Amino acid sequence: MPGLTAREKKWSIPFVLTSFFLFVMGALFAYYTLPRALSFLLGFAGPGVVSLLTFDRYVSFVMLVALAFGLSFLLPILLVFLELIGMVSPQWLSKNRRYAIFLIFLFAAIITPSSDPYTMTAMAVPMYLLYEAAIIVGRLAKRSERAV
Length: 148
Hints:
Number of helices: 6
Number of strands: 0
Oligomer: single chain
Radius of gyration: 19 Å
Order of helices and strands: HHHHHH
């Protein structure tokens, strides 16, 4: 904290707390959507196939999904940071929404450890909503800076 400017100090605590909250929310979201994704994956092969799911593979799969969802829920933190330092503007994010949707779904398809559409969609839809939230927060932050 001693090396930060007054503006940076003002934003540091909200960024850290929001980052922690969003990561936990992403991990919890993964935990609650995981049973549906697992039932899809395990039922995909058909009734005659027996799964060889071991405890260590299950735990590593759950941890990987929780980590992926937790990190993906940090998207608005990155966007608001980029807005505050002036690299992007809320208007630019709004204008390029179509590309963002494509990139969000592409990211979700790549980062999810399973290849099922349910997990990908379960990650992409909240990421898009968080993208929209970042636009709103960026507009509010710009408005508050103009007022000061």
